[in-house]
Amino acid sequence: xxxLLVEDDEPVAESLRRGLLRYGFxxxxxxxxxxxxxxxxxxxxxxxxxxxxxxxxxxxCRALRRRGxxxxxxxxxxxxxxxxVVGLEIGADDYVSKPFGVREVIARIRAxxxxxxxxxxxxxxxxxxxxxxxxxxxxxxxxxGAEVPLTPKEFDLLAFLTEEPGALMSREQIMEAVWDANWxxxxxxxxxxxxxxxxxxxxxxxIEAVRGVGFRLELVEGAPEPAGGPG
Length: 231
Description:
Blueprint (H helix, E strand, L loop, with lengths): L1 E5 L3 H13 L3 E5 L2 H6 L6 E5 L7 H11 L4 E5 L4 H9 L4 E4 L4 H15 L9 E3 L3 E4 L4 E4 L2 E2 L4 H10 L6 E3 H9 L8 H13 L4 E6 L3 E6 L12
């Protein structure tokens, strides 16, 4: 996954670059609008600062949008509503105000990419270990062949966590993916739904809480990576 980072503030850019690399993104960093427009693509996403030394980032955003539909997330110290509205109206997919945390930016990236390129649903159930199968298209979960009654949000949470078994997902990522990109309420509801999954899927998966970060789903019995096809 290739990201074009357009940011002239070196400390901010280095922090973002290191964070993106940790999450598996390949990063091309440029410091001016001219370099951004001249950068050889294609890119899967653009992170664009508005306060560039040679041009207004809004003009760069407008030019990039005229060229194609690459997802664009504006990152800017301009936090007033007018700039946010203008950025979104000229083609940005999201707008993050400085200061921000790297985890927040990663969550925004994943949400924008999911909206821009929704993954095709698998043709049938996918198996997770020897006991659990998840049929995303039908919205059904089976444990040892028997269907497990999950609430809609429990199903969405399980479907998200099993996309990358073993990966640590932050609370922000989970809330944005499972609830809403603009969720501003308490995250206690997440703990309640995790507890429900633990109870209903005991012995098939372990959902580990990582204090201050989020959750990690592990398959039980040294289960292999999930494979497509009927389960």
